[in-house]
Design a protein that fits this description.
Layout lengths: L5 H24 L10 H15 L14 H39 L5 E4 L4 E4 H16 L2 H15 L8 H42 L5 H20 L3 H19 L5
Helix pairs in contact: 1-2, 1-3, 3-4, 3-6, 3-8, 5-8, 6-7, 6-8
């Protein structure tokens, strides 16, 4: 007859639950996997599958009970680590959507907003369109595999029981600040073209005051905006690739033990 002690059961459960908590928090807060259109069963199933694969490769777990105050503290730590990793990668799509909002406002499509199920809010149609393009490019660049690889590596650089360093958190804050620069960089061709267009329309209306600016200017800015947007698409993927690589690097620095 095979018998198990309570200490052995606690050790086996901890070896699975502690990694599963970090994985589930990261999956729920990350882009692509954390999309609200992805069923919860798929997220939980993927997290359990990754936990079963990763758990045997980990070292010794803290010898604490899951229901003890120390065990609950470790679970909270894993949730914070997972959410921070997913949030860092989600900032990539925040930059793209912000660039779409800036371009849409300058094109005159700020009023054309639709419900975005990913962010559970209304966003301009250009921002949604660029978000879809970024999602497809992210998958083509194997960004989802980078996230899983970073997640698996995080258990080696920051084992269960460790806490995030101040340097890593400061890196995430700096990374969040650079998102505005990337958003401006992505939308800069459209903003520059529309600025020149608006200056030309201003000179034209000054020369011909009887010209209806709203009737003529809106189709022109809309057409030029879409034209420049199409021309800039081939240069969008390299920028997204660079942002993805920097996001992965920031995530790896986040999950390093403090020195």
């Amino acid at each position: 007859m095979i018998s198990f002690t309570s200490a052995q059961l606690d050790a086996w459960l901890a070896a699975l639950i502690f990694p599963l908590t970090r994985i589930l928090a990261m999956i729920a807060s990350s882009p692509i996997f954390g999309n609200k259109q992805v069923p919860a069963r798929v997220k939980i199933g993927l997290s359990v599958l990754l936990a079963i694969i990763i758990a045997p490769t980990l070292g010794e777990m803290p010898l604490v009970s899951l229901g003890s105050p120390q065990g609950l503290l470790i679970i909270i730590q894993q949730i914070i680590i997972g959410v921070a990793m997913g949030f860092t990668m989600r900032l990539i799509f925040t930059a793209v959507e912000m660039a779409g909002e800036l371009a849409g406002l300058q094109m005159g499509l700020g009023f054309a907003s639709f419900y975005d199920p990913m962010n559970a809010s209304y966003s301009p149609i250009i921002a949604q369109w660029m978000g879809v393009i970024a999602t497809l490019a992210f998958l083509a660049l194997n960004g989802h595999l980078y996230m899983i690889s970073t997640l698996a590596e995080s258990f080696q650089t920051l084992p269960v029981g460790g806490m995030l360093s101040y340097k890593g958190l400061y890196g995430v804050v700096s990374w969040g600040g650079s998102i505005f620069a990337y958003a401006l960089q992505i939308s800069l061709p459209i903003l520059a073209a529309l600025l020149i267009t608006n200056v030309a329309l201003g000179i034209l209306t000054r020369a011909a005051p009887q010209l209806n600016l709203f009737a003529v200017g809106f189709p022109i800015t809309l057409a030029i905006g879409f034209f420049v947007l199409i021309l800039s698409m081939p240069y969008f993927v390299p920028v997204l690739d660079r942002i993805t690589q920097e996001g992965v690097g920031t995530t790896l620095n986040l999950v390093k033990l403090p020195h």
